[in-house]
Design a protein that fits this description.
Layout lengths: L3 E13 L11 E4 L2 E6 L1 H10 L1 H4 L8 E3 L2 H12 L4 H12 L7 H6 L10 E3 L1 H15 L3 E3 L9 E4 L2 E4 H5 L7 H6 L15 E3 L2 E3 L6 E7 L14 E19 H7 L4 H17 L6 H4 L5 E9 L19 H20 L5 E6 L7 H9 L6
Helix pairs in contact: 1-10, 3-4, 3-6, 4-6, 10-13
Length: 374
Amino acid sequence: MTCFVQLHFLTVYSISNPNRDDMGRPKSAMYGGVHRLRMSSQSLKRAARISPAMSDALKGNMGERTQRLGDELFKHLRDEMGASDQKARSISKDVAQVFGKLDAAAEKKNPDHVRIRQLAFISPYERQAAMEMAERAYAGETLERSSKTRGKAILRTADGAVDIAEKILRKFDGAVDLAMFGRMLADAPKFNREAAVQVSHAITTHRADVEDDYYTAADDLKSPSEDMGAGFVGEAGFGSGVYYLYVCIDTKRLLKNLDGDSDLARRALEAVTEAFATASPSGKRNSFAHHTRASFIRAEAGDQQPRSLAAAFLKPVEGENLLKESIGKLRKTAELIDKAYGPTADSLIEMDVLGGTGTLADVKTFVSGQLVDA
């Protein structure tokens, strides 16, 4: 079984603004002394998670990142189980706190809100276990949290006391996105999950600047006799370029995080490969229609220490065909690193749209095949 799979993507974005900063402009970075456009790792991972490539292909094995599980518990107890508001709120608070501290401000704004302060990554198993724990408490088993229990939520049963965190939370299960991207639970570090997939920020391989679009919107009911002015005037930033994205997958960690389910791990590897090749952050999509596909993919497998090929673009790519030049520099840098350090992968496969070689199906088969001995 191969330890590491490394994926290198070159993707062309026409004028667009898929990932915005706090001013609404495309994110950027300085690299190699020049200005580049950038898409954050977080935005790319979310785009992959919610894309059909993952959400449909792995339905039932995808978690939820939310502050609102307590809301769902409250509604379930009140609307489906018949609990009073007070009873439903009390139980859902105790169960929701397993995932983090409660948000008092949200409850003050709306008593039906039972939310935690931070987003928590919750697996399908944990969601179901939380629902069942809430039902048990409503059925008569006693939930308590006091100084005697050192702040832990304890369920008193006929068989004795049960720490509900131990019954709800899991370190390993069948949630693919948790297995890949990990999670941190500040109040329950025992159940943190170490990510099996590392994702870089994507940057343009060349110099790229943010440009401004001055636009107007017309009022359809405004008559020409009034004036010729627009109903609205605004500005929006945009940019374009060839982006390099690097993804490193620890296949052994992925298999461990999925509790040893090798079939699910293979499906997950194929799904995440397709997702990063085809999905993009959704910012301003209706304005720019940036439905992209990777133009070049290089997939490598081996037990050697992983390495990014971002150094290929430290000196910004120049020329009339930025994609072709970027592919050439990426390949050349990989060759030079291998020459200096020895082979940094045992095998590789490429899909080159410009060159007319390879397919996404080939790459997916190659990647999932690294678990053949699992």
